[in-house]
Amino acid sequence: MTLIVTLLLLAAVVITAAYICFLVAYSVPKQTRESLYDMPDTEQYSPFAEESHRMIDEALSIPFEPVTVQSYDGFTLFGRHYPAAPDAPWLIMFHGYKSGAERDFCGGMPYGVKSGYNVLLVDQRAHGRSEGRCLTFGVKERHDCLTWINYVLSVAGPDAKIVLYGMSMGAATVLMAAGLELPGNIVGIVSDSGYSSPSGIIKKVLKDRHFPQFPTYSLLRLGGMLFGGFDIEEASAVMAMESCDIPVLFIHGEDDRFVPCEMGIENYEHCKSEHKMMLTVPGAGHGISYMVDRPAYLNAVNSFLDSVFHGV
Predict the structure, then answer these.
(1) Distance between CA 285 and CA 237 in Å, rounded?
(2) What does the alpha-carbon distance between residue 1 and residue 32 come to, in Å, rounded to a whole number?
């Protein structure tokens, strides 16, 4: 009897610890308009704070058509469609971890609108105005990506040309989505600051924050399984790239202290597409390559989009 009680108590402790890990890693705080302006107060980001706020204001001022779809597991997902000509190509944009769409794409979305593309800026599951119990580091979000693709085809027709564009976790999302059976309408992928795998970035963050890999990683994985219904080891960007034949542009800051540039290079090296490009930006931190070297960033994006949309 004593042994049974001991085992039950141990199980309760493990499950409680796994739930706490789940809340910390996978739950998303309530997001507000004001939270879009929150940026790290560090030497990498502070020089761009004023410009970022101005760009976010501009992004928020651009009118859009609200769009909702149902995810494969029953959640209502929200997006913003910035319409262009009916036959114009599409950019579907996916933001990062516990972030906001207008913040991560305060440069990219206005660029797409001004360039004459149909832009679909989505709130990832559990973020913003999208429903969801938790984020999953791209494991479930990659299926949401396919849902949004199908939405575009339903309104734009079977000849629509689409590029998937992701930032940070959104970049990993679009790369992992390439491992699914995507329609031929997906003519390109842009990955900005994407990690190589959910498990890899979680282990890296644990190391940075001086948490022991065991049992913390095991508890994080268990928490995802028990309370989120997903396994952080069931998908990875690297694995998806091994069979990718879609053109991909990889962008990464060389001084990225959250998602190491080495992860972006690893994704690039594993990508089997005959048409792939890599831009690394010296001195750029996580997700701010555009701010650090805008000419190089826009030149790479323009060249890539011209090649996949127009064959230039």
Answers:
(1) 21
(2) 51
Give per-residue pLDDT as tens, 249-281: 999 999 999 999 999 999 999 999 999 999 999
pTM for the model: 0.97
The 10 Å CB-count burial string (b at 16+, else e) for 33-51 is eeebeebeeeebbeebeee
Give pLDDT tens digits for 189-233: 999 999 999 999 999 999 999 999 999 999 999 999 999 999 999
Q: What CA–CA distance (Å, rounded) separates 169 from 192?
A: 9
